[in-house]
Amino acid sequence: MKERGLRKSQTGVVISDKMDKTVVVQVDRLVKHSTYKKYVRRRAKYTVHDETNACKIGDRVVIRETKPLSKTKRWRVSQIVEKTVI
């Protein structure tokens, strides 16, 4: 029997929660420039499945890779690290 591989996980901030059971998470990372050796900020936006609609804008969340759930959703909310105080 084959074992399932390790799934990627990333930490990001929720920037949109207008959809039902879906949030948009922005993940920021630092990448070293190959020529200038200076760190450059890169960002990516992921559409993430949020089964309980618990995430709100500004929350810091951990997302985990999963099977394709729709045309654009390939990530799931694993845990909410920090809630936003409004």
Uncertain runs are none
Let me know the number of strands. Answer: 5
Query: If classified by CATH, what would the architecture be?
Result: Beta Barrel
Topology order in helix (H) and strand (E) letters: EEEEE
> What global shape is seen?
globular
CATH H-level superfamily: Nucleic acid-binding proteins
Alpha-carbon distance between the termini?
49 Å
For this structure, what is the CATH class?
Mainly Beta
Oligomer: single chain
Share of residues in strands: over 45%
Spatial arrangement of strands, main beta sheet: 1-2-3-5-4
- Give helix % range: under 10%
Overall structural domain count: 1
Describe this structure in words.
This protein has 86 residues and is an all-beta fold. It has one domain (9-82): Nucleic acid-binding proteins (OB fold (Dihydrolipoamide Acetyltransferase, E2P)), CATH 2.40.50.140. It is 0% helix and 55% strand. It contains no helices and 5 strands. The model has no long low-confidence stretch (mean pLDDT 95).
